[in-house]
Amino acid sequence: MLTLNKILGVPCRLAKWQIHGFLKSFTFHPEKQLLHKLVLGIETSCDDTAAAVVDETGNILGEAIHSQTKVHLKTGGIIPSVAQQLHRENIEKIVKETLSASGITPNELSAIATTVKPGLALSLGVGLEYSTQLVNQYKKPFIPIHHMEAHALTIRITNKIDFPFLVLLVSGGHCLLAIVQGVSDFLLLGKSLDIAPGDMLDKVARRLSLIKHPAYSTMSGGKAIEHLAKQGNRLHFDFRHPLHFCRNCDFSFSGLQTAVDRMITQKEKEEGIEKGEILSCAADIAAAVQHTVASHIAKRTHRAILFCQQKGVLTPSNAVLVVSGGVASNLYIRKTLEIVTKATNCILLCPPLKLCTDNGIMIA
Ligand code: KG4
Ligand code: ZN
């Protein structure tokens, strides 16, 4: 029913036979109920072409992913038309690989689920176009998926967790705190007023020219900052914490990014190096930026937890904070959040690292 709400809730035209097919596939047959619902998930919202087949018990039958990170690192950011072209070149291969790893044919699928929003329009279009083709060819029901809802619900693959719970989603495109009341029932408590933390870390990594550093040249910006920060001393730089006086759960990262940018320019002058060369204090800057991001995220999350506890949404029996999205794979940020959850008697749950970043499993 909830999935149906979701189908009807998105501005996506579905033919009557698709809706009927979907309803029929969910008619209750106790003897057939288990084992026969296989969903193919397709994800192309940003720079990963991913697919997976999952059954209704959460078993992953097979998956495949093609990451565009290396290409976009070279161009200094995602160029939508380049991402679109790479999705086009890879989607068929990835879906075929997924089906073959799952040991099934398209005919055995119960439905095809695809990210329809939010994301880069050109990238989303490739997944949607390819799924439409499959849906028409094999007469399968279509399930449109909201990318952020998928991130928020991924934890239910690995942990038995009841609604409601609090979720923090931190990625390259988003930053939000929400109460998850049901499969497609979310109450937004706060969001980024400007850019997302992953986007900010990507920009700082580019400004620090980490692509020229052999150890970090193939990593996403956020991951490169995390690794470089291990060798730095965060106390050597002091960046102002965003939204210090705003008593709500919103986030902001663009002011911090500007401050870091200015600091890098100043240090380049002091060290007498050209823009594009690596600063001797790059690790210290990475450590300070990571700390400021972690502590900003932790403070807003702390406020959200206190609010939920005060309103009785999070009770001692369901005091769970789920953290997901690409930036949630940052162990320093996880540790900082652990301090908050310990202090508020909450349980911190994060999906395994590979399920935090974009993947087909969360869509399926
Ligand atoms: O969720 P995701 O794979 O794609 C989006 O939906 O955005 O997140 C990608 C973002 C990138 O900005 C990347 O730099 C960031 O997640 N990221 C990290 C780490 N690994 C990936 N940020 C901080 N620490 C990491 N270890
Ligand atoms: Zn994502």
TrEMBL record:
GO cellular component terms given for this protein: mitochondrion
Domain of life where this protein originates? Eukaryota
Do you know which Pfam families this protein is assigned to? Answer: TsaD
Write out the catalysed reaction: L-threonylcarbamoyladenylate + adenosine(37) in tRNA = N(6)-L-threonylcarbamoyladenosine(37) in tRNA + AMP + H(+)
Enzyme Commission code = 2.3.1.234
Species in which this protein is naturally found: Sarcophilus harrisii
Gcp-like domain location is 59-364
UniProt similarity note: Belongs to the KAE1 / TsaD family.
Task: Specify whether Acyltransferase is a keyword of the entry.
Answer: yes
Molecular function (GO) terms listed? metal ion binding; tRNA N(6)-L-threonylcarbamoyladenine synthase activity
The cofactor required is: a divalent metal cation
Know the name of this protein? Answer: N(6)-L-threonylcarbamoyladenine synthase
Q: Where in the cell is it found?
A: Mitochondrion
Task: Explain the purpose of this protein.
Answer: Required for the formation of a threonylcarbamoyl group on adenosine at position 37 (t(6)A37) in mitochondrial tRNAs that read codons beginning with adenine. Probably involved in the transfer of the threonylcarbamoyl moiety of threonylcarbamoyl-AMP (TC-AMP) to the N6 group of A37. Involved in mitochondrial genome maintenance.
| Alphabetized UniProt keyword annotations | Acyltransferase, Metal-binding, Mitochondrion, Transferase, Transit peptide, tRNA processing
Which GO biological process entries does UniProt record here? Answer: tRNA threonylcarbamoyladenosine modification
Q: Does the keyword DNA repair apply?
A: no
Q: Which residues form a coiled coil?
A: none
Q: What detail does the entry give on cofactor binding?
A: Binds 1 divalent metal cation per subunit.
TM spans (from-to): none
